[in-house]
Design a protein that fits this description.
rod-shaped; single chain; 9 helices
Length: 213
C-alpha cells in the first residue's frame, strides 16, 4: 500500500506500562487519541490535555506511518470504528475491504460485550434467593423445643426446698414463711407446722438454721 504524508497531529505514544496509542488531534485543552485495546477495538477517545500528558508520552523516533499501519492490521482482528479508520486513513491507505472487515469486527465485539453484560444482570437476581434461604433456615431449627426444658427447670423448687431456703435466710417469722410457701404451692392450713418441722430437720442435717423469730 502506498503511504501518505504524515499529519503533524498524529503522534504514536505509550504509557508507563508500554501500552500504545496514537494521538490524532490536539488543542490547548483536549486530546483525541486511539488506544490499542484488544477488548474494545480501535475507537477515538477524548481526554483533557493535562491528563493525557500524565498518562502518555510520545514515542521518539517511531514513525507515525508504522504505528498507523500496525493499528490498521490489528483492526482486522479486533475491529475499529469508522472514525478511527478515518484518522488512520490520513497516514496509510485503508481499502474498502479493510474498512468493512474492521467495522464488522467492531460491531461483533460491541454486541458480544453487551450480551455479556446482559447475561451478568440475569444471573444477579439469584443472589437474593440465597439470602432468603439463609433467613428461613433458622425456622427449621429445634429452638422452640427448648422451652419445655426451661419450664421444667422452673419447677425444680419444691415446697420442701422453699421452706428450707426461707428458714436459712432468717428474715421471716415461721408464720410468714408458711404463708409464702402456701401462696406458692396452695398448702392446707393444717400444714402450718411444717415450718417448725423443717427447721428441726435442718438442725439434724448440721445446717445451723437461725432461730425462729
Amino acid at each position: 500500500m502506498a503511504s501518505k504524508k504524515p499529519t503533524p497531529g498524529i503522534i504514536p505514544c505509550y504509557d508507563r506500562q508500554r501500552r500504545t496509542c496514537i494521538q490524532v488531534e490536539r488543542t490547548d485543552t483536549h486530546v483525541k487519541y486511539i488506544p490499542l485495546d484488544v477488548n474494545e477495538g480501535l475507537q477515538v477517545l477524548t481526554a483533557a490535555a493535562n491528563e493525557f500528558d500524565q498518562w502518555y508520552e510520545p514515542m521518539v523516533n517511531y514513525p507515525a506511518e508504522k504505528a498507523c499501519q500496525l493499528f490498521l492490521n490489528y483492526s482486522q482482528t479486533i475491529g475499529a470504528t469508522k472514525e478511527a479508520l478515518g484518522y488512520l486513513g490520513q497516514i496509510v491507505n485503508v481499502s474498502k475491504q479493510e474498512a468493512d472487515m474492521a467495522t464488522t469486527n467492531k460491531t461483533a465485539a460491541t454486541e458480544k460485550a453487551a450480551a455479556t453484560k446482559t447475561a451478568a444482570k440475569k444471573v444477579a437476581p439469584a443472589k437474593p434467593a440465597a439470602k432468603s434461604a439463609a433467613k428461613t433456615a433458622p425456622v427449621k431449627t429445634a429452638k422452640p423445643a427448648a422451652k419445655p426444658a426451661a419450664k421444667t427447670g422452673e419447677k425444680k423448687t419444691s415446697a420442701a426446698q422453699m421452706f428450707q431456703d426461707l428458714i436459712m435466710q432468717g428474715k421471716l417469722t415461721d408464720d410468714q414463711i408458711f404463708e409464702k410457701v402456701q401462696a406458692q404451692f396452695g398448702l392446707d392450713e393444717k400444714k402450718r407446722g411444717y415450718t417448725k418441722w423443717y427447721r428441726n430437720y435442718l438442725k439434724k442435717q448440721g445446717m445451723n438454721p437461725p432461730e425462729a423469730k
